[in-house]
Amino acid sequence: MHAPRDAHWNLVKRILRYIRGTMALGLMLMASPSTDLVAYSDADWAGCPDTRRFTSGYCVYLGPSLISWPSKREPTVSRSSAEAEYRAMANAVTECSWIRQLLQKLLLDVSTATIVYCDSVSAVYLSANPVHHRHTKHIELDIHFMREQVALGHICVLHVPTAQQFADVKIKGLPTPTFEEFRSSLCVIGVTY
Questions:
Q1: DSSP states along 78-142
Q2: DSSP 8-state assignment for residue 59
Q3: InterPro entries from the xrefs (predicted)?
Q4: Mean pLDDT lowest for which of 27-36, 76-85, 105-114, 127-136?
Q5: Model-level pTM?
Q6: Half-sphere exposure of 53 (CA within 13 A, CB side)
Q7: What's the rounded Cα separation, in Å, for the pair 148 and 179?
Q8: What is the model's pLDDT at position 137?
Q9: Nearest CA to 123 among 148, 146, 152, 149?
Q10: Four-point Cα dihedral 73, 76, 80, 83, nearest 10
Q11: Which of 14, 47, 58, 184 could crosslink 41 through cysteines, CB 3.0-4.6 Å?
Q12: CATH superfamily of 27-190
């Protein structure tokens, strides 16, 4: 904003062209008796070329409907891709915990564990068994929080192949066919008025 360049203007025009081409798309929310929560979390480690900060994002589904889908550039630099993925997963688990509590206050039964999918095998292993504790001391709070949620049976962390990681659409530039496939899996469909 303080020193715009031609590259910034070109990006703004690209965004506006995308918005103009997708005016007929909308988010579809479907009624369902299911209170199953499923989340996909991902991180783009050191993705910012200027600061090397990572971008995290996640998508949370309640039954078949997408209900939460934030992404943000994190305020810290991550020392490894596993740390970035783990912090992104902790953000998703925090959101899922809040949603679980909200559903319980609304007297809706949340009997099954929330499934959180992550495409980092290292982060999945850390959530179940932080064996290399001295190497992960700098992310200790996230580790304790995640371990507690897994131990309580509220969260089940599973690996998902990158080709099925829907959260990528929030944080990475994807090829057009992959982007359109992931966009449709986020309950975005053509609407008529």
A1: -SSHHHHHHHHHHHHHHHHHHHHHHHHHTT----SPEEEEES-HHHHHHHH--TTGGGGGGGHHH
A2: E
A3: DNA/RNA_pol_sf (IPR043502)
A4: 127-136
A5: 0.80
A6: 9
A7: 35
A8: 56
A9: 146
A10: -80
A11: 58
A12: Ribonuclease H-like superfamily/Ribonuclease H (3.30.420.10)
CA 84, CA 33: separation in Å to the nearest integer?
34
Q: What distance in Å separates the CA atoms of residue 65 and residue 60, rounded to the nearest whole number?
A: 8
- Rounded Cα distance between 157 and 147, Å, is 10
Q: What angle do CA 163, 166, 168 make, to 5 degrees?
A: 80
Q: Are 34 and 64 in contact (CB under 8 A)?
A: yes
Residue-level pLDDT at 27:
87
To the nearest 10°, report the CA torsion of 18, 31, 68, 93.
Answer: -150
Per DSSP, 5 falls in state -
Element (H, E) at 193: none
Q: What is the pLDDT of residues 112-169, one digit of tens each?
A: 999 999 998 888 888 777 565 555 555 666 777 888 888 889 999 999 998 888 888 8
